[in-house]
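FAQ
Q: What does a multi-component entry look like?
A: The components come first, one per line:
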Amino acid sequence: AQKITQTQPGMFVQEKEAVTLDCTYDTSDPSYGLFWYKQPSSGEMIFLIYQGSYDQQNATEGRYSLNFQKARKSANLVISASQLGDSAMYFCAMTHSGTYKYIFGTGTRLKVLA
Amino acid sequence: NAGVTQTPKFRVLKTGQSMTLLCAQDMNHEYMYWYRQDPGMGLRLIHYSVGEGTTAKGEVPDGYNVSRLKKQNFLLGLESAAPSQTSVYFCASRDPPPGQTNYGYTFGSGTRLTVV
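Then the predicted structure of the entire assembly, as tokens:
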């Protein structure tokens, strides 16, 4: 069965520190994509980063990087130099080449402390 | 360049009332989706459409109906609202080439629905 698991309901991090948000996935399809979205308190869903199952290198987008460990089926989001504006809910999601639907995890609420 | 627009943004319904949520996109996307977001459960797919005139059930379709009469619009209907349908509803669209996984959703801003 295809599934996304985020085991951290909530996380705290000190401003300017790095933080890792965990995401594990389960799929038997060799072709898939992994995404992270940010949802601030205002409610909108903001795309952060994408990793394809065949990508050899970990994806990076500014302060965001995705630690992709294919054998472990994990796709952790790393936020470097946390800012107060990073406080939000973060969702990991997966899609496959044979379908155009996303499967979402339950999310991790991150609070950045001043 | 509006992207995906959802109306209304907020609504309070009484149990048994009906309503329709509208999702409109101006990107000519083929694929459109309705999700609901509940605390501790992430986003769950209600219904989706792979093109004008098509609809399909997602993970939690019961109590909802949808229509895609025009490519740019995807309507979500609640025929007889129940308190269990209190949620935040998100519409999304995308248009990936066949076999491509690297195309993300464009989300609407959400509709907060409360059923009392």
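Q: Is there any commentary attached?
A: Sometimes. For this entry: Chain A has no helices and twelve strands.
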